[in-house]
Amino acid sequence: MIKYILLVVLLTSSLEGLKLHKKRTNFENVPKFKTLYTDQYLDHFNKRDDRTYKQRFLVNDEWFNPNDGPVFFYAGNEGDIESFWNNTGFMFDIAPVFQALVVFPEHRYYGESLPFGDSSFDQDKIGFLSVEQTMADYAVLLTKLQQDYNLCRKKNPIIAFGGSYGGILAAYMRYKYPNIVRGALAASAPIYLTAGLAPSTLFFQDVTNDFDKEPGCVPLVRQAFDAMENAAKQGDYKLLSEKFKLCEPISDAAGYKHLLLWMRNAFTIMAMVDYPYPASFLGDLPAWPVRFACQQLVNDTAKGVDILSSFKNLASILYNDTSKCFDIYEQFIECADPTSCGLGNDAKSWDYQACTELNTVQETNGVSDMFPVISYNEELREQYCLKTWGVKVRKEWPSIQFWGKHIKTATNIVFSNGLLDPWHNGGPLTNVSDSLVAVIIEDGAHHLDLRGSDPNDPQSVKIARYLEIEQIIKWIEEARKEPCEKF
Amino acid sequence: MIKYILLVVLLTSSLEGLKLHKKRTNFENVPKFKTLYTDQYLDHFNKRDDRTYKQRFLVNDEWFNPNDGPVFFYAGNEGDIESFWNNTGFMFDIAPVFQALVVFPEHRYYGESLPFGDSSFDQDKIGFLSVEQTMADYAVLLTKLQQDYNLCRKKNPIIAFGGSYGGILAAYMRYKYPNIVRGALAASAPIYLTAGLAPSTLFFQDVTNDFDKEPGCVPLVRQAFDAMENAAKQGDYKLLSEKFKLCEPISDAAGYKHLLLWMRNAFTIMAMVDYPYPASFLGDLPAWPVRFACQQLVNDTAKGVDILSSFKNLASILYNDTSKCFDIYEQFIECADPTSCGLGNDAKSWDYQACTELNTVQETNGVSDMFPVISYNEELREQYCLKTWGVKVRKEWPSIQFWGKHIKTATNIVFSNGLLDPWHNGGPLTNVSDSLVAVIIEDGAHHLDLRGSDPNDPQSVKIARYLEIEQIIKWIEEARKEPCEKF
Predict the structure, then answer these.
(1) What is the dihedral of CA B20, B23, B28, B29, to 10 degrees?
(2) Which residue in A220, A305, A407, A443 is a FRET match for A142, CA 20 to 30 A apart?
């Protein structure tokens, strides 16, 4: 208890944040982990299916005190678990103080945790990828760990952490397995949006708002998209291909649409990871990439660079042109979730999830946002998902299974959201109850609070982390009142 | 609101119970129902599987007031849903006062709701029978009904009812789908026991305690089992076959064991349905069958009837000897759950569930109970389940998935238990929190409170029903505070 008080005093007195590890951005001081594997049932809900797969999980127990250390559990989301280990420094900043055991299980069908290796993404094998199966994996693993480490509920409460879809999973774990997870920090978790309860134009409107904070930026972006539109209308795909230095020139409307999607994606990513320092989370980006991009665009055009070339220069902040040209078909892949498309296995799995349990229908209209009209609605999603994955979208399922807006009965969850994050309007922004607490980070982008402390952190994220620590301490103290039972 | 106050006044002033329907036992006044069917996904958790099946559900809307009537939802359990409609009169006693819509969905793989018809029980088809799939069926159906009837959360809160395994499901629905179910009456729901958290000798010890309330009964039962044991030791299966009037004589230790199980089962059933009036729920039995059986046993032996014949006479209270003999192989089938074995499809499904998610390992030792030693433990269960269903028992799953003893985060559940019910020690007998309320019925057997009001009801069940109504009103009033939103 005393150590927690010290921690809070430290935080409140200076609000300088925790400085146990600096320079998180280069992963230089990221703590080591042990890589372990556990056998999980492929199908937790069909007991006739005895097949198992190897789930990877990362563990650090160097600070763990079995007598009263909690378990810090990161709810692995849509990617290689090591990348989340390298981008969730907040947990390592506070784990030594809490003397916590740190566990990062990998989400099934991502990273190394592929039930059927590279053929996991075949239509007849992908069906075991679901939010429910994943949560069951986590519940079973955590129960196993409490046996292996001889943990008890009183001394070693489990706190879930997660960002984005991982934050959604952390919250859901508290909804569905409060017997196992004592509390959850759900950072940037757009739970309402993914349950299909947000307008489809919300996301890109908020991307636009981010860029609109920079003087003169949005009008130039609109001007650039207009210039593209004019060229396309005249069939001048050659001009566009040259101006944007495309490795593979476009020659028709479909190619033009792909160029627009690639361009729009640059704004999406910069808005999402608008961090106050250089970071390489969704691409190598400079500090405050939105400001950086806008200033460059304004400066370029002021210098007389034509608008299309200036626009290409903006894209090159995110995209590599190592071959002296841009491969827009490699750098952006059309998929079910227009905000997150990529190459490789992880992108395939995410695409399947965006067709099943995560509603991510976002579109632009050029009115409430600065982008060209690119329609995407439930009907188009349904067509795409049937064609690509052979699945009929079960539209109502997510809000039935994961409670939609009716989450009042849950307890011990922090929903944190940064106002720079275009996802923030998709989640709870005010307290739902005394123990469903909303934390707002005025100058924060996508789950900035989960990242390690940095000298450039704005005050608002330091305060957010303080509030989160306060809640975590509350959850741990709550556990102390219970007998020392197994989970 | 006023009508509820009237209801409570009525109940508290007289405590005579609700007399809207009498003579429930003969089903004479059981309200009518509409039989409806809905398409349900066979696999709610694998979106690649688009197969559906027809789930039956029964509806009565004759009293329903859409403006403020709740939905009374019975969580169908292991049998034909019509049999539960005919044995859950409490809901019909109060539904007119609450102006409730009454819905009884049938549990998948029971009654008519067989996904693959008669071949549903093949090893390659049974795997879609699970508690999780069943709960998803209910959640999806209830969401569909709110659309069909244009219900909203404020005006039409859904209250779940269930007895025994149905009570477990009602409670679980509130654990996992509190967005849909506002409160649950879980009658005689041994949630701890089925999660594997009770000693294997508990159940039959409580059966013994029931019979021990009748003077002179247990010593005679022990004497009778001893006499059987003596005959068996001498290999005198002929004597046993004659005394028990077996249609098919037994001739070896296996046959003898089956006779013992058949005999023990008579006690099990009589203890479970030790109701204050004749009932035909798990067999046609007289009022207070435990007392009836004991008095007959005592009288028979007092009259000089030999102990084995007296014992056979006791069994005949439950079992039919229409062919002038007892077919013990038809009247009792050995299975995974030694407390509930029978013939037919429903029994097959229950057997599978007892091998998967419902731990029902009960055994007798002749010390803490009055029965011969019949061992049954996890190891024997595992062997049986592997042999019969080809499933490896996942022993820890039920307490991981359904919270075991750690249910404190749930709200709005009444756990009612009758002290005559041998299952009562398997569930919560004291309040877990302000809104997880234990109701004890001193003179009640297995979910007597869910049955319709009867002139012979003991005072304790009338009080229990009053307490339950009080909670239901509380849940409905809670819903009134919310906006009129969809589920």
Answers:
(1) 10
(2) A407
Q: Which ranges of B50-130 does DSSP label H, i.e. alpha helix?
A: 81-85, 89-98
Instruction: Annotate B142-204 with three-state secondary structure.
Output: HHHHHHHCCCCCCCCCEEEEEECHHHHHHHHHHHHCCCCEEEEEEECCCHHHHCCCCCCCHHH
Q: Which among A130, A143, A406 has the least Cβ separation from residue B46?
A: A130
> Pick from B41, B124, B391: which is nearest to A47 by CB?
B391
Give SS3 for A249.
Answer: coil
Among B41, B179, B403, pick the best mutation site for testing chain A contact (most A Cβ within 10 A). Answer: B179
CB B59 within 8 Å of CB B103? yes
Neighbour-count burial of B119, counting CB atoms closer than 10 A to its CB (0-12 exposed, 13-18 middle, 19+ buried): exposed
Q: Nearest by CB to A409, which of B178, B391, B401?
A: B178
Domains and CATH numbers, chain B: 2-195+402-480 (3.40.50.1820), 202-389 (1.20.120.980)
CA separation for the pair B220, B212 (Å, rounded): 11
Q: Which of A336-340, A467-471, B238-242 has the lowest mean pLDDT?
A: A336-340
The residues of A annotated as belonging to the active site are 164, 421, 446
User: pLDDT digits over A101-151, tens only?
Assistant: 999 999 999 999 999 999 999 999 999 999 999 999 999 999 999 999 999
> What would the pLDDT profile of B210-238 be if each residue is shown by its tens digit?
999 999 999 999 999 999 999 999 999 99
**DSSP 8-state symbol, B458:** -
Burial B290-324 (b: 16+ CB within 10 A, else e): bbbbbebbbebbeeebebbbbbbebbebbbeeeee
Q: How far apart are CA B339 and CA B351, in angstroms?
A: 11
pLDDT band for A6, please (50, 70, 90 cuts): low
Residues in chain A: 487
What is the DSSP secondary-structure string of B376-391? --HHHHHHHHHHHH--
Residues B409, A356: C-beta atoms closer than 8 Å? no
The burial of A253, by beta-carbon neighbours within 10 Å (0-12 exposed, 13-18 middle, 19 or more buried), is given as exposed
Tokens of B222: 């022990």
Measured between beta carbons, the chain A residues lying within 8 angstroms of B391 are: 47-48, 50
Which DSSP string corresponds to A358-382?
Answer: ------B-SSSSSS--B---HHHHH
- 3-state class of A437 per DSSP? strand
Q: CA–CA separation, A416 vs A442, rounded Å?
A: 11
The sign of the dihedral angle between the CA atoms of B189, B191, B192, B198 is: positive
Residue B155, number of CB atoms within 10 A of its CB:
18
Which residues on chain A are in Cβ contact (under 8 Å) with B397? 44, 140
Alpha-carbon distances of B329 from B79, B227, B360, rounded to whole Å: 21, 22, 21
Q: How far is B431 from chain A (nearest CA, A)?
A: 16
| Share above pLDDT 90 across residues of chain B, in percent, rounded to a whole number | 87
Name the pTM for this structure: 0.95
Residue listed under structure tokens 């006779």: B259
**Residues A129, B131, A194, CA angle at the centre, nearest 5°?**
40
Name which of B43, B46, B129, B486 to mutate to probe chain A: the one with the most chain A Cβ atoms within 10 A of its Cβ: B46
C-alpha torsion A449→A452→A454→A459, nearest 10? 20
The answer to whether the beta carbons of residues A192 and A404 sit under 8 Å apart is yes
Q: CA-to-CA distance for B103 and B32, rounded, in angstroms?
A: 12
